[in-house]
Amino acid sequence: MLTDVWTSLMLVWITCVPYTSMTPIISQSKSLQTGSTALLRGLVEGQRILSRAKRGWVWNQMFVLEEFSGPDPILVGRLHTDLDVGSTPIKYVLAGEGAGTIFAINEITGDIHAMKRLDREEKAEYTLTAQVTNRDTDQPLEPPSEFIIKVQDINDNPPQFVEGPYRASVPETSQVGTSVTRVTATDADDPVYGNSAKLVYSILEGQPYFSIDPNTAIIKIALHGMDREMREEYLVVIQAKDMGGHMGGLSGTTTVTVTLTDVNDNPPKFSKSLYEFVIPEDLAIGQPGGKVKANDRDIGENAKSTYNIIDGDERDVFEITTDAQTQEGILRLKKPLNFETKKSYTLKVEAANIRFDPNSGAPFKDTATVKIAVEDSDEPPVFSKPTFVLQVDENAPINTVVGTVTARDPDVTGSLVRYFIDRHTDLERQFNVNVDDGKITLAKPLDRETDMWHNITVTATEIRNIQCHWNHSQISRATVAIRVLDINDNAPEFATEYEAFLCENGKPGQVIQTVSAVDKDDPIQGHYFEYRLIPEMLNNPNFTIKNNGDNSISVLAKHDTFRRQKQEMYFLPIIVTDNGNPPMSSTNTLTIRVCGCSREGIVQSCNVEAYVLPIGLSMGALIAILACIILLLVIVVLFVTLRRHKNKPLIIKDDEDVRENIIRYDDEGGGEEDTEAFDIATLQNPDGINGYLPRKDIKPDLQFMPRQSSGPNGVDVDEFINVRLHEADNDPTAPPYDSIQIYGYEGRGSIAGSLSSLETASSDSDQNYDYLREWGPRFRRLGELYSVGESDKET
User: Ranges for the Cadherin domain (predicted)?
Assistant: First the structure.
């Protein structure tokens, strides 16, 4: 039986040979039953044949098959059952991984073939199931049996550097044996079977600079004193070979780019030992006067240097700084140069690395000499001092000399200097300056009370040659501050316009007002004012003044009999004199009003009319009462006006002047869109109104009984309107109202005279209308009408 064949542990080693020469498969049963002794002898014989083929035995329920790449199918093995005696129609069935695609079975003989290339790196083993069924009914004759086909590895994959190519770096001048980097290669073959995946590393290119460990693949420095400045980059080719490096093994290569990183092993070096510069004496402070540079073969931070002046005459005149971008030393001016004082300078400049290795022992610095020649320049005039402070009296006359400014030409030529005032600083042209000697004079009168200080700018320009051409490019400036000194030219006056209030019930000696004065002048010793009444008021019976000792006075009342009815206002002239030289004085008038005050002395009213007001009522209360009276009067007037307008008749009857009356209405009909003025539903349903709606426009004199609608439904609209018209004609309260208008007035001034007989005692029969024909064409028709009437009467 098939079960007896597959349940035992066995190994069948199949030699990869063509299908036609393949040795039949040898099977071993799990338990040998009756009739199976021949199969067992065949198994032993098969084992003896395989042993002669030098194949190893692996006792497992599997087949071992080497991976192959040939185009022909390979016999894997053969299935057999004791039921296959020729009389029973049996069929061998294969199922599982790769069944029908990779592996195929002969349904009759049970031969299993590998139809496609087997690659252990893709799949190392396959699990399959075999079963015997009836060919006619497909019914299973035996239970299924499971077995494994294992793919045996062969050396068919070369080593690969998955992470390559590599880049590495190592400091220059590194010691021999310094590790640079490590490379790694992989082999897809089975690492546990044979030497297919055993790798050995070697260098194909890169000697004698680098070496590699054959087992660890660590790349190391092999040459002493490798200098980056000589060669910075190296290309190393690495090979990995399997089979332990023996002949016949597969190999793979990669590249490693090794870069030597910089170390500070080179000092800075000036390109020349002596630098010479020519600097103009008018070079501005902080401006560059020259550049020096020390070259360094290193790069990056190792090449950065700093520059210093370590020796030389007057080293504080110059300074040297480092340009971070170009690594140049910039020579700058710290103090002004003067060709007339010193014409040359000699400096010693040092360049030193910022970073250096103290263990190297090398001097990482260099020095150079710098010689500077000062060039003479055409300099602007120089004032004796930058600021001049002058003084002048405010009453100084025109052309008074205020002061003098001086400047000189610092050049060797010693050119003449001319002076000018910058008129942007003297817009009112208060001052002038002498162009030759710099004397500043007064051009307009000054007033200290308007401007105490005047700040002007004076410019100095040199004359270039004897033709007196001014060098406008060389101009210097100086500030002149002119202080205006005060003189006593302003009289003192009251600090404000005072208005004093005096209570009628005041006491004698009561202070009415405190008065102080101001003076626009500013004397050195300060202000002192003297107050006095004018001579005409020295014996004033009402008021007197008292000096308070602080440049102010108090005005006092002499009695308590002041009354508003007698005199409401008093004027008190006071003379104020200052202590200037000469003294100045002015007369100021103090206005004093007599007021009614409360018992506490609080001012309540200061006019005569207020005196006759009832005692006990304040001004606010009186104003409120007056406002109420005016409001009541306005209400009464409005009421009367409305009453008169309401009782005005619609018909004007005037015996003296009766003329045509025209009544205008502002109301305008809404047209077709007006659906509210008239209820059209009434016409559509005349029987809808059953009640009486009283009129609201007038009060009827007669009471009219409402009409009772008794007509049948569906009354004609025309009949309904006629009924309503009849009711309106008989309703005296319904508009329009019948009225008679009497016209007894006729216009005057017409050359035709009167056409009316109202003012004549004659009748129509006594009138002669023949004159109408004489009035012209306009009255011709009228004359014909009246003429016809006369003819008819005569007839």
Answer: 81-161, 162-270, 271-383, 384-494, 494-616
Tell me how far apart the 2 most distant CA atoms of the chain are, in Å.
185
**Within 13 Å and on the Cβ side, how many CA atoms surround 760?**
11
Residues 6+ apart with CB under 8 A from 462: 380, 381, 409, 415, 416, 417, 418, 470, 471, 474
- Tokens 């950065």 belong to 304
Question: Rounded to whole angstroms, what are the CA distances from 352 to 227, 306, 320, 428, 450?
Answer: 22, 5, 13, 62, 66
Task: Give the number of other CB atoms < 10 A from CB of residue 769.
Answer: 17
Question: How is residue 630 written in tokens?
Answer: 């005016």
Q: Is the dihedral of CA 135, 136, 138, 140 positive or negative?
A: negative
pTM of the model: 0.42
Q: How do 251-261 and 233-241 pair as beta strands? A: antiparallel
- Higher-confidence residue of 181 and 717: namely 181
What's the distance, CA 577 to chain centroid?
A: 66
Distance CA 1, CA 7 (A): 11
Decide: 570 and 542 in contact? Cβ < 8 Å: yes
* Cα 143 off chain centre by: 85
What span, in angstroms and rounded, lies between the C-alpha atoms of 11 and 208?
A: 54
CA dist., res. 326 & res. 304, Å (int)? 10
Following DSSP, what letter does each residue of 23-41 receive, concatenated?
Answer: PPP----SS--TT-HHHHH
Q: Where are the alpha helices (DSSP H) in 76-144?
A: none
Distance CA 219, CA 222 (A): 9
What phi and psi values does residue 616 have, to the nearest 5 degrees?
105, -15
Q: Are 343 and 371 in contact (CB under 8 A)?
A: no
Structure tokens at 723: 């009924």
Q: Please state, in angstroms and rounded to a whole number, the distance separating the CA atoms of residues 441 and 401.
A: 4
Cα–Cα distance, 22 to 16 (Å, whole number):
8
**DSSP-derived pairing of the beta strands 387-393 and 382-383:** unpaired
Question: Exposed/middle/buried for 53, CB within 10 Å: 0-12, 13-18, 19+?
Answer: exposed
